[in-house]
Sequence to fold (520 residues):
Amino acid sequence: MEEPRTPQVVLRNVTRIYERGAAGPVHALGPLDLDLPKGEFFSVVGPSGCGKSTLLEVIAGLAEASDGTVSFEGKAIAGQVPEGVGVVFQEDSTLAWLTVWDNIAFGLRRRGAMPGEIKRRVDDVVRLMGLGDFARAYPAQLSGGMRQRVCIARTLVLEPRLILLDEPFGALDQQTRLLMGDEVLKLWRETGATVFLITHALDEAAMLSDRVGVMSARPGRFLEIVETGWPRERDSRIAAHEDFGRLTSHLWSLLRDESLKALGYRTAAA
Amino acid sequence: MRPALLLRLATVLGFVVLLEILCRLGVIPNFTMIPPTTMALGLYRLLISGALLPDLETTLSGVAIAVTAAILIGFLAGALLHAVPRLRRALDPFFASYYAVPVWAFYPLFIVLFGLNDIPKVIIGFLYAVVAMIVNTLNGLDRVPPVLRKMARTHQMGRGATVLFIILPSAAPHIFTGVKLAIAYAFIGVVGSEFILASAGIGYQISFAYNNFDNVILYSLILFIILFVSTVNLFLYSWERSILQRRGGR
Fold:
């Protein structure tokens, strides 16, 4: 099948430099190139401060590249979030004054969808995400994991073709993260959307992804893009696969020196 | 009924009963204070006679104008200061020391400028209330999580829609606290000004009764002020509580 390999997101020579006055400019990212085929699950790992979130913001259109180009479905992204792109952030972005149901319906209402359509789509997503018992609850009445589910549901209900996840499970405990990972995989298969995940957890990246981009310390560049070779039908039990350990070891071997650099150690001494 | 509420009611009731007994037994002379039941009876007579209505109207209209102006101007000033950090840094020390300045000291100046009418007391009510509104608006806007602004952009929301659907609802609890304080401060400013130099209003009537040794009117009006302001505040407090409870205190 040719169609799934069509690049949906294309980055060419993307660089991001922050002008910070007295401290001087900070070269945060790039230059880097990346092609994301439609329907792929792509994860990015890298040391702290390497520009992972900056990369996601540039792809989302939340930040502009200082140099280079980013395009989504053939159209350049320049500081504006294109239609068809959904973002889930690490921080809780539920709207505290709305119920779970209204949080999920928020984007559809802003787009002027008809009430009948809103009801149908929100009810579907509420069911899909297992939020049925909490539809009338307020975010403050939910756990961190449930709130993050609401944020994912609010993104999914808009049927994005590209889903950007910025460490969405970062604040959750290990068991919840594994289960949320399974849910994301299920949703990825069901929606057919492209998923771009930023994570600091190597096992999470290895478990969920078709490919994992390993970034260097700042300025972030791809050291290597690793193909996992997992089948599309997979879940957290893939961690028991004999290749899983080899894969995470390989990711760590790529990352170790970069992580030491990010912490200010000399790699030769380490 | 919750134990805390019961305890609160019992404390108030106990104090009132004790005062009643002390006044009735003459431990507190009637020249100093009248029994609470006499105050309540006096207030009842005042209310049904309608004699209080013109003064009540004068005070409440003054408070209403001061509160409305303080809320509108305070909110807009807070939003402006939030948008212009340099201006905010310049004015922050003034806000920090603002309530150390006795605004009533300017009352003679306002009378010279605006005449012996309702304007000086409304200005004093406004000056007392407006800074509470500015400071709480700033607090509210400061506490809007940055991620919500990003989320708004991912929903292709413009500046106006972001303010209306994200920033204002998110900042609402703090803005509401500003409104609550503005009402309380405006009451203090307006009624206090009426004590000093006015020709009408509840504060003026209390002062008049005090100067004429009319304890029944004096204490009836004090009781009225306490009941009125407490009722308004209780209403605002329970409204605020219901908003905060839904948000889990966030």
Notes: Chain A touches chain B at residues 60-62, 80-81, 83, 85-87, 89, 91-93, 95-97, 106-107, 110, 138-141 (CB under 8 Å).
